[in-house]
TrEMBL record:
<dbReference type="GO" id="GO:0004222">
    <property type="term" value="F:metalloendopeptidase activity"/>
</dbReference>
<keyword id="KW-0645">Protease</keyword>
<dbReference type="GO" id="GO:0046872">
    <property type="term" value="F:metal ion binding"/>
</dbReference>
<keyword id="KW-0378">Hydrolase</keyword>
<keyword id="KW-0862">Zinc</keyword>
<feature type="domain" description="Peptidase M48">
    <location>
        <begin position="60"/>
        <end position="246"/>
    </location>
</feature>
<dbReference type="InterPro" id="IPR001915">
    <property type="entry name" value="Peptidase_M48"/>
</dbReference>
<dbReference type="GO" id="GO:0016020">
    <property type="term" value="C:membrane"/>
</dbReference>
<feature type="signal peptide">
    <location>
        <begin position="1"/>
        <end position="18"/>
    </location>
</feature>
<dbReference type="GO" id="GO:0051603">
    <property type="term" value="P:proteolysis involved in protein catabolic process"/>
</dbReference>
<keyword id="KW-0732">Signal</keyword>
<dbReference type="InterPro" id="IPR051156">
    <property type="entry name" value="Mito/Outer_Membr_Metalloprot"/>
</dbReference>
<keyword id="KW-0482">Metalloprotease</keyword>
<protein>
    <submittedName>
        <fullName>M48 family metallopeptidase</fullName>
    </submittedName>
</protein>
<dbReference type="Pfam" id="PF01435">
    <property type="entry name" value="Peptidase_M48"/>
</dbReference>
<comment type="similarity">
    <text>Belongs to the peptidase M48 family.</text>
</comment>
<keyword id="KW-0479">Metal-binding</keyword>
Amino acid sequence: MKRLLLALAVTGALAACATTTSPTGRTQSVGAISQQQLDQMGEQAFAEYKSKLPRSTNRAQTAYVTCVVNSLTRELPAGAQTGWESALFNDDSPNAFALPGGKIGVNTGIFKVAKNQDQLAAVIAHEIGHVISRHHDERVTRQMGAQTGLGLIGALLGSQYGSGAQQATQQVGGAVVQGVFLLPNNRTQESEADVVGQRLMAQAGFDPQQAVNLWENMISASSGNPPEWLSTHPDPRSRISELRNRAGSLAGVYQQAQSAGRKPKCG
């Protein structure tokens, strides 16, 4: 009976999948689980982060990150602007992430490459770009399509029917952290998050040209060694060229934001 329920759950989830269009016009397959479930998974993963990783006690840096996050999320579509939560983790790796449910994590190591508020905005806007482009939804759907989501479906079923709720929560959290949210994004998603994020930062009044400077800093910080993310990210030089070209086309968006009074002063 349990196997039958799992099979039916997977079949039902896949049948519910939908084809949609991403913010850049790309066709996506999404909807294997509901947005509510996806948000719950993001919240669970974020809770695990906060329980296991040390938080920064630097109030000035924490306020700095919060200011950039708030400036960016105010420019999201109606209904997606509120409820965002950010945390600054005491970790020397230059990294950041955003999860469904409006959760953003930033490592203190990011300040080694993000030298000003515009460069920090480029990082965070890129990560928000993954969320609003439904990349996590796309990855969950793809995993279930490859039948690697059986354990996840089982956990969701257990939670839904109230049987072993605690165990189900742990299973969902593990699946999220290991199999969905922390695996590298593919190059298509990374390029798309660049496009969406750079436009978002310009709309918020951050200089889109600084996304170029950020990636130049990233390359310099790698000290000539190929960074870990290179295998799944676009070629850094091509990425910088594309960011530079878009910065020119977004100059009007940036100037309009500035004229409208959107001039963030975060740090």
